[in-house]
Each structure stands twice: as C-alpha cells, then as structure tokens.
Amino acid sequence: MEAAWQEGLFFVFATVITVSAIGVVTARNVIHAALFLVATLIGAACIYILMFAEFVAWAQVLVYVGAIVVLMLFGLMLTRAPIGKYGEYDNDQKGLAAIVAAAVFGVTAWVLIDSFEGVELPTDRVAATTSKDVGEAIFSSYVLPFELVSVLLLAALVGAVVIARRDERVTSRTIDAARREKAREEDV
Amino acid sequence: MNLPPIDWHAIAPELVLTAAACLVLVVDLFLPDEAKWIAMPLSAAGLFGTLAAVVSLLGAERVTLAGSFEVNDFALLFKALFCVIGLIILALSLDYFRDGRYHQGEFYFLLLCALLGGVVMASARDLISIFIAIETISIPGIVMAALRKGDVRSNEGSLKFFLFSVLSSALMLYGMSLIYGVTGSTNVDEINQVLPQQHEGLVAVSVFFVVIGFAFKVSAVPFHFWAPDTYEGSPPPVAAFLASASKIGGFVGLLVLMFRAFPAVAEQWRPAFAVLAALTMTVGNLIALRQQHIIRLLAYSGVAQSGYMLVGFALIGANADTNSQAFKATVIYIVIYGLMDLGAFAAAISFARRGGTYFISDYSGLWNRSPALAGLMAAFLLSLAGVPPLAGAWAKLFVFLASIEAQVYWLAVVMGVNAVIAAWYYLAVVKRMFFDVPEVSEPIETPYLLRAAMGLAVLALVASFVYPRLVTDLADRSVLESRGADVELSSP
Amino acid sequence: MPEGYFGQYFTIAIFIVAGVVLVLGTFALAKLLSPFQPHTEKLTTYESGIDPIGTGWSQANVRYYIFALLFVIFDVEAIFLFPWAVVFERLGTQAFVEMVIFIGILTLALLYAIKKKVLEWL
Question: What is this model's ipTM?
Fold first, then answer.
C-alpha cells in the first residue's frame, strides 16, 4: 500500500523537475532561468528524500539551492546585460543542442530501463543508507579524497581571489612587454 | 567502533606535499614584494621532500584506506615523475613570474596543489579518489592559465579550458555514478569483478561517458579544441604544465581505470580507443604541419603524441601477455613523453625570454646565435619525432611492437604513417635552426638553471636510448594487477 | 502527529503548504477587497519622491562575487560537519583529527582572504 503513494509522489516531483528543467533552458529572462533551476534542484532533493537519501537531499538544498544558485545570481548581477524579456540569448546552435540532448536522453533512458526493469526499490527505511553510514564511509575509506577536497576548495578560493581581485599595481614592465608583443604580432 | 588504522608512511608523499603547499601559501602572504620569489625555492624544497618520501617507499607494496589507496612501483614511478616535472616547471617559472610579477606565491601554491592531485592519482584505486584527484589537477590548472590577467588571450584560453573541463567532469561523473549504480562499489577491483555480469548496454554507456571525460583531459581528437588556444594564451610555464603533468595525470587515471577496473568488458570499449587513437594521431599531426607559433606547434604535436599513448588502450584483450606489453609500452611512452615535451617547452621558453619570440620564423639560424640552445631544442624535437639516438625512438617502437604483438596491424600502419608526417614538421624546425641564415645575429644566453635542467633531460633521453633497461626495468616493475582477485578477461 | 520517516517529512510538508496558502491567500484577499483604479503615476517605482531614472538593473562590483564564493566554500565545509557530528562520538579521536585537518586547511582560505583585503567592505 505504501509503495503506491510513494510512486504517486515520485511522479509529482518528476513532473516538477521536468517542467522546471525545460523552463531553465527556454526562459527568456536569465533570472527566471536561475529560479527555475531552484525548482529543479528542490524537486531532485524531494526525490532523494523519497529514496531515503536524507544527507544527499539536504546537501542538495544547502549547497546547490542555498549557495550555488546564489552564486549564479551574483554572477548575473556582475554582468552589464539587460535582464528584461528583451534579452536575446539564443544562437543558431539551439537545434543541434536539442538533438544532442534528445539523443543523450534517449540512450540513457533506454539502457536504464533495459537493465533495471523490474527491480524493486526498498519502500521502508531499514534497507537504506543513513547519515551515519555516510559519516562512517567518509571518515574511514574515503578520508583521503575528503581531505583532498579541502585542498581543492582552498585552491579554488585562492584562484577566484587572484582572478577577481583588482591588482594593486600593474608594473610598467608588464605593460611594455605586452606592447612589444602586440607590435611584433602586427608585423607578422 | 574503531576506525581502521591509516598507513601513515604510505601517504607520506601526499602529506609532505600538502604541508609544503600550505606553507608556501602562508609564507607568501607575509613576504614583501621584492622577496616573493622565495616561494619558488620553498616549493622546490617541498618537492624534494616529497621525492624523498617517495624514495623511502621504494619497493613497498602497501594498501590502505580500505583498498582505495595503493602504493606500489607503478604508483611510485608516477609520483616521482610528477615531482621531477614539478621541479623542471619551477626552474622554468622563476624568471618568468619574478620579472612579470604575476602573482608568484599563488602560482607556486596552485602548482603544488595540481601536483598533489597527480601524486594522489598515481595511488588512487577507487572512483571517488580518481575523480577528486583529476579535479585537483584541473582546477588549479584553469586558474594558472588565467594568471596573465591583462591579456585577452590568457582569459580566453582559460575560459575555454574551464568550459571544456567542466563539461568533461560532468560526463565523467555521470558515467562513474552509473558504474556505481550497477556495481554497488567504487573500488576498481570490485568493479572489474562485478561489471561483466551487468547489462551490456548500460555498462557500455557508462564506460563511454568516463572515457569521453578523460579524452577531454588528455586532449584527444575530437575533444582537443581547447588545448592549442589554452596553451598559447596561458603563461608559457603553465602551458608546459598543462602539456605534461596535467595530461599525464589524465593518462594515469585512464591506465588505472582501463587496465584495472574495466578490462573484463574490454571488448565493448576497445574499438572506441582504436578510433580515438588513430584520429588523435592523424588530426594532431596534420594540423601541426601548418603551425607558425612554437607553442601551438607543441600543442598540436602534443595532441598527436596523446594518440600514440592511446594506442595501448586499444590493445587490451584476452591475452595477458599482450595486455602487459601494451601496458608497459604505454607507461614507457608516458614517462618519456613527459621528459621530452617538457624539454621542448623549456627550450622554447628560454629562447623567448632571451630576445627571441615564439614564432618559428625567428628560429632561423639559432645554431649561430646559441649552439647550446639550438642543440638542446633539436634534441627534444628529434626525440619527439622518434629519431635515434634518443629515448623517443624506443617509446614509439615499444608501442608499435605492442600493436604488432596484439595483431592490430592497421593501428601499427597508422602509427608508421604518422611518424613520417610528424618527422616533417619537427625536422623543419631543426633545419631552420641549423641551416637558415639568422635575421639577427646577437648571441643568446640561456639562464644557468634552465640550461642545467635541459642538459639533464637530454642526458636522460640519450642514456635511456643507449641503455633502454633504464626505462624498461621501471616499466617491468610497475605492474597494475589486482592482488588476490582472479579476474577473467573477455575474449576479443 | 504522524510517526516514522515519512511522518516527519509529512509534518514539514504541512508547514510548507500552510506557508504557501497563507501567502497566496493574503494576495488573493487583497485582490478581492482592494479597489482597482489604474493610473500611470501609481505604476512608477516609488523612490522617496524622486523620479526613477534608467532601468532597475545596476552592475554589481566584482568584489561581491568573492563574498558569494567564500560562502559556497564554507557552506561545503559545513555540509561535511553533519555526517561527522552524527558519528563523531563513535569514531573518536581519529575522526576528530581528520576534521581538524579539513577545517584547518580551509581556515587558510580565510587567512588568505583577510590578508588580501578582500573582506574589507568599501
């Protein structure tokens, strides 16, 4: 009995994800696209909860909805682009992109259905992974990648600061070198 | 519950390198502008320390962290190679970053982080470690490529690299998640045991995604578009890093996955590698023929070289002998490629730093202006072309023999044709250096440090040609077999 | 009060639905009750009595992006604290040391940001 309403909820969330994902790529306004993305990500988080993957679900909400989309909105605010509906973001590769997307969808859907058809997912929590399991896995077998992630995040932050920060001074030497190289290139 | 103990000695190189990277970052923050270059000797000391830790592990066979981290001769060989490459890049960078004042401390920190990714990759034996390691190589690389902030080409190159890198990571991660989905394990040995019993279509699709992800990283055709623009735009020492360490990191990941995690389903992905290798060699060489800019020439020749390294993957089959021969040939090729490609970059950079340019036309008569530099450059180019008496010849020959042994004759033919095409553009540069009349005749002084590094590299190339056991012994010892698991390979 | 795994999420769902209904209901009520007499003056943005100029879009300074990025990085750090907190008691000192190293390395990011003066609000 329980499985039936879980399946029903799954289809509700799946519809939300599909509709808002299509919204992301078709929205004329980039801010709307970002907000559609929020709906997509929250829908995915709901499906994770349905599948008892609580940790992943809340990581999704906190990191992706709470931080990544905020970062994207910040990024949009940095641009000088107009955000009204007059913005033109299409280019001639739209059709090609649609074909590629459809092909990827078709192939993955086919192989997934083909190999997992008839497999029953657990409908109660006993068989599922808990946050405890995730914690134990991270701190025993995956501790090296876990520590490496901190170095990676540090490198990403240092990189972002180096690139985004205004330099205090550009030495006359670098400017001269740039001019020389440009002049040389024009000669060629 | 108690955690399984960690083998601290086994991860010593990683610990030393992490500490060195953090130290460089912190020390740089407190250095005055004139003294920022001190970060370079500090980084070099860190790499020597890492190298010492690697040496202390020689001959060790250790597995720790629940089988996800393995130290053996294969891992140690590549750890040492990453350290040596790092040291050569440091020697290349000092002048460049000090004179240009391009964020020296950050550059050295990022370089050490990227090398840390490579050092971890050499030992990583599970999907999560491999993925994080390849990202730790790529992301600092993207930032380093953008360090010439005032230069539009640097920005463009870095952005292209970033977009391709993100796309490839996404594909790779999706493929890995599918593999975890069907096998229920992230460990390469367990995957290899379970994978053949799974649904063929799904296995093929997921391996395909992973391979495409790595194909971007090693700039295989048709996923190579970012490489020439990024190499040209980024600071030249960074281009040298991307062409050597970054690419080798990708290949190490591929070696672990293809020879250890997926060999049981080899018949499904082997043809893809054959096509990839043939395309990569041919397209890379044909485009390289028309290049006027030495960095772009090296970029396209690097693409072609990736093709030779991919050949080994197309030979994996049921026969354990041909498998191990293909594996050894690929390992030898990767090690020698790292040395000679880096050498060519070093020679090009030191020429451009001392009055020259990156345009091949300016190489005319270099022999008259600086016999030493011309000789070194010629040695590296000839080695890349596979001309004896340099180790590049052995590298090509071993891959060639491996494909004959595996009876994949058409790939051997493609390799032969490509060696001829490649010889054409390498020899064109050499001829220009030795026989053309120079436009300017001022002599060129190469920096002392660089000349020593390049001299050692040439010495290593010649020595390993004369005495090939230097490299074949290394390759013989570096096996990548799973212990305890008796795995049946699929028949071709 | 519903029990169990889904029961708890059911409670959350009730709160979400109540929140949505409350907001939408208030708007609907306002729509129903308020008089509707459109006029151009009423549609302009109210900006303390001064006529608004240009569009509502203004380009933000790149420096704010670093704040957002710092936030992402420490958000990821916080995420890893949750599974750690759940198992910390059972795993003991080693897990503690591992977490201290993780946070220690990320603290360098903060030190770097402070020294590079990107945290100063201009």
Answer: 0.90
